Amino acid sequence: MKYIDPVSTQSWKNLKLHFNEIKNVHLKDFFKTDTSRFNNFSFFFKNKMLIDFSKNRITRCTINYLLQLAREMNLEEEIQSMFSGKKINYTENRSVLHVLLRNRNKKTILVNGENIVSKVNYVLEKMKNFSEKVISGEIKGYTGKTITDIVNIGIGGSSLGPNMVIEALSPYKNHLNIHFVSNIDGTHINQVLKKINSKTTLFLVASKTFTTEETMINAYTARNWFLEKTGNIQFVKKHFIALSMNFLEVKKFGIIKDYYFEFWDWVGGRYSLWSSIGLSIILSIGFKNFVDLLSGANDMDQHFLNSDLEDNIPVILALISIWYNNFFKFETEAIFAYDQNLNKLATYLQQLNMESNGKSVSRNGIKVNWETGPIIWGEAGTNGQHAFYQLMHQGTKIIPSDFIAAVNTHDKLYDHHKRLFSHFLAQTKSLAFGKSIEELKENFLNEKMETKEIEKIVPFRIFEGNRPSNSFLFEKITPYNLGLLLSVYEHKVFTQGIIFNIFSFDQWGVELGKKAANNIFSILKENKAFNAISYDSSTRNLINAYYSWIK
Ligand code: F6P
Fold it and tell me: Measuring CA to CA, which residue among 353, 350, 397 is closest to residue 373?
């Protein structure tokens, strides 16, 4: 495969010229000149999801140039490569096949000459049997008591995905209490240990590598706490479960094969909620709902794999994002879910997007001179409206945003949902179209304000608008629909990675911090004045301040 730099393509040059033509056009004018703009710039997917991307600063011509770019970058071929198991994670020499975990119809796919489908099915069946026995109460704790609590110990992809999904699908939850411990800060695990009973708790040690410092320290702390309570090492076997690909380390920890749920190197950490890392999800909402989640994701996978680029939802969303990031130079993208249960979505998408595309060296090994992954952030609506939306409406920065909502709520309560939904609609409308001087003056005149007063106040009350957004609309947040949504984002990130010409599936950038912390930990353990000149004066003095205050 030839790796092409996007800036060297003809379409990039076309986009640059096109940008100069339309950069100042207002969304109002796009809507005025195209009365079918909504129809032209929206997707209905299986009558389950509506994506309206009409409130973007694009024309049909923009989309055509962007599609030309995608073609010049061989996107279609790259998609085929991922789905057929080619080792597209080049720097780790791995296939990227999380999509296989949700395709229950696939019969064969070869990785290193081995058909891995049966392995996937075996683990899925094992998760089903295990979870059913825990939920029904058949599996009991060491004293014979029914299990009531599950603690997932993991970090990054071994925590964010399951944690987000369990919260998103909380209306489907059963009686089990699920807790997440990720931070190495002892406060995190302490908070959880205070709430649980060793007799009725299972610990899921979730770590692909089973060597991640935070997870292993927390897992051993949980094990010590458990041993203090039980006084019997044999009981560890009954209460500790491993979700990992490293059975050697799992065994050393004292976890038995029956309680080892395997996954593989071709599942990236941030794509692992679909693998055995999803065991906490199954324990919380049951196997059937997990399968619905998988099938939503699989339907979107098939759409991504088989649709023409112009009809391809993740592709179009990715291209629009590239348009903003690289031509308008908008640096961030926000996710606003108008659904309290999707509270953790933005944090999850932060890892998905920023760990994948936060790279600055191209696949040819040279420093890029174009923008790669944007900064992702967000918050559940309407909380943000009373915090940072001021800047979004009137600040000097423009923040393309995704607004997500469901027509029906799981929590019908008076008219809460209708009001929430009104905010969802009102925000994208106001961001796009704003409020002009003329509209403002008319409003004030209707309020019988004096002309002099109006002139004074108007500059501060103008909303320029022209701030773009996508709207994602669902009938309801169900496991299937959530699967659709997550798969859209995964493939959007994939598409962007291809067009940025970077390797999206490694994460070497997080290694530096890990090693540096290990070195400093050995210094802190010494507990004596630290003068090493190999360290900068700032770090050295912070270490010495630590020594002077440590008790
Ligand atoms: O933060 C780096 C990372 O490797 C993530 O990609 C991953 O999700 C996380 O650490 C946890 O890794 P593991 O599952 O191996 O403990």
Answer: 353
Same domain, residue pair 332 and 281: no
* Structural domain range at position 529: 508-549
Q: Is residue 454 part of a domain?
A: no
Evaluate if pTM is beyond 0.90: yes
Q: At 332, which helix (H) or strand (E)?
A: strand 332-337
For tokens 């003809």, the residue is 10
10 and 57 inside one domain = yes
Strand blocks (E) in 346-430: 375-380, 401-406
Give residue-wise pLDDT tens across range 165-221: 999 999 999 999 999 999 999 999 999 999 999 999 999 999 999 999 999 999 999
Same-domain status, 152 and 256 = yes
Nearest residue (CA) to ligand 1, atom 16? 207
Residues 259 and 382 grouped into a single domain = no
Are 150 and 278 contained in the same domain?
A: yes
Q: Find the 269 Cα to ligand 1 centroid distance in Å.
A: 5
What secondary structure letter does DSSP report for 328? I
Name every protein residue with a CB atom under 6 angstroms from any ligand 1 atom.
155-158, 207-209, 212, 215, 269-270, 355, 507, 510
How does pLDDT run across 41-60, given as a tens digit for each residue?
A: 999 999 999 999 999 999 99
Backbone torsions φ then ψ of 496, nearest 5 degrees: -60, -40
CB–CB of 60/40 below 8 Å?
yes
Give the count of beta carbons closer than 10 Å to the beta carbon of residue 126.
17
